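lol so apparently i was supposed to do this last week
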Amino acid sequence: MTRTLRSALAAVLLPLILVLSSCDVSLELPNDTGSPSGSAGRAQPNASLEVVNDGHSRFDQEVKNAITDVQAFWRTNYPTISGGRPYPEVRGGIYSVDGADVSTALRQRNACLRQDPESAQNNAFYCTADDSVVYDRSPDHLVARLADKYGVFMITAVIAHEWAHVVQQRLGSFDSSSDAGSQPTIFTETQADCASGAFIHTAQQGRTAHVSVDQKQLESTLLGYLQVRDPPPVSVRQISHGNGFDRLSAMADGIANGVGYCFGEEFAQRQFTERPFTSDVDYLQRGNLPYAQIIDPTPDSPDQSSLQQVLNRFWTQAAASADKQWREVGVRQEDGDPSCSGKQASDFDYCPDGNVVTFTDSFARQAYNSLPDKRIDERTGKVTLVDDAPADYSLGMLFVYGWSMAVRAQLFGAATADRDALLAASCYSGAFTASINTGDTQSFQLSPPDMDEATSAVIKLVPSDQAYGAHDTTALQRIQQFTKGYFGGLPSC
Ligand SMILES: [Zn+2]
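anyway here it is w/ zinc ion bound
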């Protein structure tokens, strides 16, 4: 988040951000050998598929299982979006490579590797030049690291994304050169995420021969998919795949609505939230205000713009528009065990008695440092995944949800600790978030990384037992509600 001083605006920013390579690329991701083969749940046979330079590792096998099922999916579904034409098979082969060391033989054989052998590192991509698909199988690189941490179904989500590019190419909509007058890259990329979601739905229904996914694995996959977001851009040119919200909301829409939606009119109108930094101060802070400012409801600022004050203003207006009165919600940091109405409360909660959001310092600090992120060694390409990157708006979202629970209690006399409350609060929180993400120069604004931080909170922080609890909601449902509120505003909730 940022509290912008108008004089600090406008800037030429240093492009320090790591941008991953591209050669007709689709996804920035890598490979694994150590993770358990065959997703848990159904015991399914491994697929047999020809792969150039097959590493014959468990990781390679998971890729082959995914590709086989995804191709079967498109043989069935392609005609529904192509006017009845059958799916043209991939002609240029599938390549398994060690992204850190692409052999001369492979370079000679594949058009994209010939042009840019480095492009394979930490990546999986569709190569339009010879209609091939290349993936980095190195256990130290991105896709494998993701599979290790978030489960093997991550591999399937990535492969399904890549195959959407295969399909886009066949439909004439995938222009990776991005200089023609075709769709912007972020459109084709999020459309691929949507298509990946459509395939995931098929796997959820048990209609795949080699891969499967249960609810728990899907939760983990959605969190893992946050790791393939773009780094916050410093210029419009750096916008490529979408931020975490753009990507996850597209995937969630694909799961809910299928390929017809992803390749239809409605998706074509899609709005995106990824945007570059617009102030040097914000950039240098990486979009994060200090912890103390996030928890302080009355900071010493001339424009009275703490998050809590902005929340009270937003809900005062919303209540007034419904001829209701808003009682300003307070904040209380608990030194001992948090309590509400004489009962033990969680470490971050809304208490209707007293109309106050209560929290412990230790959990709030944990929330402030809770964003999944990746570090990539520039020399070796080795990837390290972390869970504790600073995220002021992940912590901020816990306050936003607290205020949303107050809406339930104050305006509707409804419960604040059940399934309906959490889903409604997700929608309200989306609407509020949109109101402070306009990118203009008003005094209190979200920063470019904040939509990632919000999405991370919706998936893993808000439903924590230490916060509001999951109450039988899924990450997918909360993302869908948050997205609905974000784009549709309060009337949609
Ligand atoms: Zn892609």
